[in-house]
Amino acid sequence: MTQQSTDTPQQPTIAISRELQKSYLDYAMSVIIGRALPDVRDGLKPVHRRTLYAMRELGNTYNRAYIKSARIVGDVIGKFHPHGDTAAYDTLVRMAQDFSMRYPLVDGQGNFGSMDGDSAAAMRYTEARMTRLDQELVADLDKETVDFVPNYDNSLLEPAVLPSKIPNILINGSEGIAVGMATKIPPHNLTEVIDGLMALIDDAEITVHQLMEIITGPDFPTGGFICGRAGIREAYETGRGVVLMRSKHHIEQRGNNAESIVITEIPYQQNKATLVEKIALLMKEKRITSISEIRDESDRHGVRVVLDLRKDEIADVVINQLYKMTPLQKSFGIILLCIVNNKPEILNLKQILQHFIVHRKTVIYRRTAFELRKAEERAHILEGLKIAITNLDEVVELIKSSANPAEAKAGLIARFELSEIQAQTILDMRLQRLTGLERDKIINDYEEILAQISWLKQILSDDNLVVQIVRDEFTAIREDYGDERRTEIIDAPDEILPEDMIAPEEMVVTISHSGYIKRNPLALYRAQRRGGKGVRGMVSVEDDFVTKLYTASSLDTFLFFTNSGRVFWRRVYELPLAGRTARGKAIVNLLELGENEKVAAILPVAGLADMEDSVSVLTVTKLGRVKKTSISEYKRPLRKGKFGLTIRDDDEILSAAITSGDDEIFLVTRKGLSIHFHESDVRVMGRLAAGVKGINLSEDDQVVGMAIISADDSVLTVTENGYGKRTAASEYKLQARGGKGVFAIKTSERNGKVVGVLPVVDEDQVMLIANSGKIIRMPMDTVRIIGRNTQGVRLINLEEDEFVVDMSILAREEDVEDDENDEERVEGENED
């Protein structure tokens, strides 16, 4: 009897270390790619994307009724995300919390938790739907704009990424802990991020530092402060950084020298109830003794935690103690880690924006290709219908004479060289389409579809056109969903800013005809009486002379308006400091001006960031158009400038001024005409508006000066031959804007055309500038007030071929000094 072998084939031996390494790496990549990290394109983790896609498939959009959260969760875990209902519902809840998401993606109805750490109600009690913003995340999803992949059991398809018109990765941020890595992207302001994207589109070489002038920092949904910019700068440049968050508070008086600290905004992700408990515990342990009572008066309108201080306690000291010992001050560690091309990468700010722009371009290419294919299919059918209605009688006779539909179809294909689809469409066509109107509609539809096909092909062949479409979509998103910042960025306590090292000093800023700019201390220019010889503010060279002069503090901001309508900004201390007779630095090297572009008006502004929206900038052009724009439009101009208004090709900006809303405007023309009207005649317009007519000019005349005047002012008008005069503002009656005006000064060959106008009082001092570079500084109490319809007195003694080109009013200074060459000149006074 033969014994049969019971041995089985042996399995190959695998080292346990290698198997563990392989299995752990597979698990790690599954967590990294499939669960914990957001995609750079739509800013969503898989569970968020699947939740929003499931809601879309349910028709649970913002304009439909709410549905139970349990039904949404059931669809999510049953179709796409089999990781438990708790994970899916927690995701739904967080996307509905306006204190967690800067721009919530779920519109919840019911109890979805609170800042006090209260959990949401059970999913069977709450209801939800998509927000309006979600429509921008899933827009064009049905136009083959993104790839679809099988779900977990291969029974359905789900999008690998959403088309997303909004930069969700930045505006809502993301947090997640994967295997060996973590991400922590803070939320940002949508308006700023969109502006940053458009700046990158306009200038591919823009630096992270320049982008930071637009995207100033994170913008948390709970508001508060960010202290310092160093952490923001490090995070935006390297992908990692730490920012310091602080609460926002104000002081209220209670009487008897007692005060209350009222906390209105707390740092992001901090539990308010825990914060109140922590402060109460510090009071109980006597570690903080200055607080007598603490009350949480928060409601649905916002946070309000009141700390009543004991009598004569100093609020600032208590606040510093709270910053030290409670979550009123917390750090936020930024890690800009996300999935890029199925790999985790730490990106800087510019790279994130670049990836999103590439994503949008890809979506537009794919959407256009889909629409082109559909349009060509439609055109193919319409072409067949057009052939049919063109040969209507023959088509009808052929169909009538056919024994069956198949024979009719074959006959149509053979007779008119149609495709099977075209022939079948003709056979399926209703008799009502044979009416005159329906036939015209088919022809019109065919012509429209051909035009659409041409346009779609143009898009696919022109990258610049695609970029413009991306830019237009960004503009629409900003207009529809943009809002103001909630988190304010303030200086860090130990942070030294450049202006902290600049001593406040009155400066004179001059600009030459050839476009050179410089600043000098005001003290370099001594005061002289009317008619003096003056001192040189710049050694003139061939074809160059000083044309503009301004006085301002070294810490002020200058808004530079160019003749083409662009506006730049620079701090005065950033302007080149040069000797009194030096030319300075070319403005083209300072402001990045375009070809044939030059500075036309400069506006010194003190405290630009703190100005209210009621304050406006009034601009005037040479052709007499005036425009008023809120100062908020100019608070954060791009380093390379932005357009301040729209100007006709034959016009230029002449002047600009800050107005309060109740000012009176005075315009004067080169021929001596003037108009005086109230600021309310000019409504506030957008930054790109063209403005309205300020004065009705005669032929070959133009506006040369604009002034803001009051009843106590006198108006100084100066002509190019060195003459001028002061006239009481009351001599110029208020008119409606757009009129021809009245004479401000009589011009003649003797005194020349008008150079400009200034509002002055006796205490003021004025500088006049000649084309030779000569500058004279004179007090206004030496120029007496005379009538409106006169030629004026000599203000500066000019040499042959010299003429006045500009003038500027100075800050009030010490008494006028005598000069050995001083000599009053009142010759030529004319009281016509």
Could you explain how this protein is built, in words?
The protein is an alpha+beta fold. The protein is built from 18 helices and 41 strands. It folds into four domains: 44-163, Alpha-Beta Complex (Topoisomerase II, domain 5), CATH 3.90.199.10; 248-327, 2-Layer Sandwich (Gyrase A, domain 2), CATH 3.30.1360; 364-480, Topoisomerase, domain 3, CATH 1.10.268; 498-810, Neuraminidase (6 Propeller), CATH 2.120.10.90. Strands 14-9-8-17 form a four-stranded mixed beta sheet. The termini are far apart. 38% of the residues are buried.
Number of domains: 4
Overall body shape = globular
Helicity range: 25-40%
| Percentage of β-strand residues | 15-25%
Roughly what is the average pLDDT, rounded to an integer?
Answer: 84
Return the CATH architecture of the largest domain.
6 Propeller
Biggest sheet character: 4 strands, mixed
Using the coordinates shown, work out and report the CATH topology of the largest domain: Neuraminidase
CATH superfamily of the largest domain: DNA gyrase/topoisomerase IV, subunit A, C-terminal
The CATH class designation of the largest domain is Mainly Beta
Q: Give the spatial strand order of the biggest sheet.
A: 14-9-8-17
What is the C-alpha radius of gyration, as a whole number of Å? Answer: 36 Å
> Helix/strand-derived class?
alpha+beta
Number of strands: 41
Low-confidence spans? 811-832
Number of contiguous helices = 18
Q: What is the straight-line distance between the termini?
A: 149 Å
